[in-house]
Write a structure and sequence with these properties.
This protein is of the alpha/beta class. The chain is 41% helix and 16% strand. The chain is built from 13 helices and 13 strands. The chain has a seven-stranded parallel β-sheet with strand order 3-2-1-4-5-6-7, sandwiched between helices. Helix 1 (15-30) packs across helix 13 (335-349), helix 6 (191-201) packs across helix 11 and helix 9 packs across helix 12. It starts with a strand and ends with a helix.
Length: 350
């Protein structure tokens, strides 16, 4: 029997939890020998169909993961534990550990002091003790080798898939013509330069819609308030349902993702899958993931971001070309394929 560390079921749904949720859902459909163990209490993400979930303990968060999770598993004979969200128990084996990226090492200034200190202590130790280390791009594999000295033969790359969002038919296009950005509100997503580019462009009748939420325990403030003050055309929606998000992707003129650093970069592929043209950064994992299906920019250059947005929203043939290439690119990424690869890694260890 293999157990999934399902602490992610108690967390807000962001890119990390999306990866864990979708991958686990497909994995339990592929194998009856995979079960979940999670903290007791309410589930904040959606439940996983067909999954057997064991609830244990009274603690939450990191304390549950470090104390009650390993204790529970040791009582069951120390089965293989698969961790999908960057953390894992320090004192447990055997286990597979997933590290999505090493942004907290490359750019610690983006994170809160507490987050940085904990992850800087934890991650090097859990990858050293893990049977295998899973990551989500060849870029992140190189980062693990360079920054943490993880042997290449210990690392397995498993790409993200694309979620089958269904547009909410009850959510009509309420914004008219708009540029879309989807990300957590944090410094590395580079929303500041996106907003500056939008303000320079000042496209008549075109809004900027930003979807995402902010976690002050993890990220440092982004100083966006002054940039959006008194500008009714810049809209922050907060967290939205999958159906609402799919509708926004489908109606947008362009999706812009000028991130400074990514381990994969799921939102651009989600946008492509909904037929939305993509502008993104030519850095980190993004060219690996988006291929020739995106228009690339230097995320540090506001004028470059502005020019790319202007090209897409004024050039209909270019928009159609990016849409066509994007749909083909997104079709390469499947959660079922990713789950099969994870199952192969589990079989290597077992």
């Amino acid at each position: 029997m293999t157990f999934i560390n399902a602490r992610f079921l108690t967390q807000r749904l962001t890119g990390t939890q999306r990866w864990a949720l979708e991958l686990t859902g497909e994995l339990v459909r592929l194998s009856k020998d995979v079960e979940l163990v999670a903290p007791a209490g309410n589930t904040t993400t959606r439940e996983i169909e067909e999954a057997k979930i064991h609830r244990c303990g009274s603690l939450k968060g990191h304390l549950w993961e470090q104390m009650e999770l390993p204790k529970y598993l040791k009582k069951r004979g120390s089965p293989l534990l698969v961790n999908l969200c960057n953390t894992a128990p320090l004192r447990y084996s055997p286990q597979i550990v997933t590290v999505l990226d090493l942004s907290f090492i490359r750019n610690p200034q983006w994170f809160s002091r507490g987050f940085y200190v904990y992850y800087r202590f934890l991650v090097p130790r859990i990858v050293k003790r893990a049977e295998r280390v899973v990551t989500i791009s060849e870029f992140s594999k190189r980062e693990l080798i360079e920054l943490l000295g993880v042997p290449a033969e210990k690392i397995r790359v498993i790409y993200c898939g694309v979620s089958a969002f269904k547009a909410d038919e009850k959510s009509p296009n309420r914004y008219g013509r708009y540029i879309l950005a989807v990300s957590s509100i944090e410094p590395r997503k580079n929303l500041k330069n996106l907003i500056l580019a939008y303000r320079r462009l000042s496209p008549e009748g075109v809004k900027l819609v930003v979807v995402g939420s902010y976690n002050e325990r993890v990220f440092k403030k982004t100083e966006l308030e002054g940039l959006i003050k008194d500008n009714e055309n810049i809209i922050f929606t907060g967290y939205l349902s999958d159906g609402e998000l799919a509708s926004l992707y489908r109606h947008a003129l362009v999706f812009v993702y000028p991130s400074f650093y990514e381990g994969f970069g799921l939102p651009p592929v989600e946008a492509m899958a909904q037929g939305c043209p993509v502008v993104t950064s030519k850095v980190a994992s993004l060219p690996e993931v988006c291929g020739d299906a995106a228009l690339y920019v230097n995320p540090h250059d506001v004028e470059d971001i502005k020019r790319a947005i202007e090209r897409v929203i004024t050039d209909e043939p270019l928009r159609e070309e990016l849409k066509s290439k994007g749909l083909k690119r997104a079709a390469l990424f499947s959660w079922k394929t990713s789950a099969r690869r994870l199952l192969d890694v589990i079989k290597e260890v077992c």
